[in-house]
Design brief:
By secondary structure, this protein is of the alpha+beta class. The chain folds into two domains: about 15-50; about 55-130, 2-Layer Sandwich (Alpha-Beta Plaits). The chain contains four helices and four strands, in the order ααβαββαβ. A four-stranded antiparallel beta sheet has the order 2-3-1-4, covered by helices on one side. The structure holds nickel (II) ion (NI). The site of nickel (II) ion has 4 residues, from strand 2.
């Protein structure tokens, strides 16, 4: 972490009021931390736009395990990409539905392709890739 710099920001009072309300709802107790988090989030997003950059994320999948061969297909895909998929959490939500959360790490382009393949598999009811960072650059 670098030295702490203080900056002044000119901002419309209506916009500031909305911002304060928003960050209050999110549990921030001061503006500075909210600003810092917004900046970090933009930086993380930017990293994911560079196809070769090293990224970390999670893929969440909800599917019905009764769909023929679906569990097997999803597991096969995960084995094909075992170098990028670090861990998998499986929860049996109810009699039919399963939730899986996969921790993924690798080059942005590879991680995105893997996530898209998993999410678009027939029978997956919902899927989402959440992008984050290894934390080293922030
Ligand atoms: Ni299950």
């Amino acid at each position: 972490m670098g030295e702490l710099s203080r900056i002044g920001v000119a901002i419309d009072s209506d916009l500031l009021e909305k911002f304060d309300r928003l960050i209050g709802q999110r549990g921030y107790t001061n503006r500075s931390e909210a600003f810092r988090d917004l900046i970090r989030d933009e930086l993380v997003q930017k990293t994911w736009e560079s196809p070769d950059s090293e990224v970390v994320g999670t893929v969440t999948l909800v599917y019905d395990h009764n769909v023929r061969m679906l569990s097997e297909r999803l597991t096969d895909m995960q084995h094909d990409h075992h170098q990028q998929i670090l861990s998998t959490l499986h929860v049996h939500l109810d009699h039919d539905n399963c939730l899986e959360v996969l921790v993924v790490k690798g080059q942005a382009k590879n991680v995105q392709t893997i996530a898209e393949k998993l999410i678009s598999t027939k029978g997956v009811k919902h899927g989402r890739l959440t992008i984050t960072t290894s934390g080293k650059e922030l």
